[in-house]
Amino acid sequence: LRDVLSGRVPVVLRSEIYATPALLGAAIVVVASALEYHALWVPIAAAVICFAIRLLAIRRGWNAPLPRNP
């Protein structure tokens, strides 16, 4: 909301990797739930994986691909 009100492009839409780790973490929880596996460690593991991927992306300078202009 802050970015929209200030007229800037939202951080999640820039080239940094935000959505990919979040999507992977959510997918892990959804798949485990669909398989009716409701262990406490599943969401914790998903959060750790999400955090680890984001941390690696920051440290190694990984960026998401940007759309090409036609």
Keywords, separated by commas or semicolons:
mainly alpha; 3 helices; elongated
How would you concisely characterize the structure shown here?
The chain has 70 residues and is mainly alpha-helical. The chain has helices spanning 2-6, 19-34, 41-60. Helix 2 (19-34) runs antiparallel to helix 3.
General description of the model:
The chain has 70 residues and is mainly alpha-helical. Helix content is 59%, strand content 0%. It has helices at 2-6, 19-34, 41-60. Helix 2 (19-34) packs antiparallel against helix 3. The mean pLDDT is 86.
Mean pLDDT: 86
The largest sheet, given as strand count, sense and whether it forms a barrel, is: none
Q: How much of the sequence is in beta strands? A: under 5%
The number of strands is 0
Give the low-pLDDT segments.
Answer: none
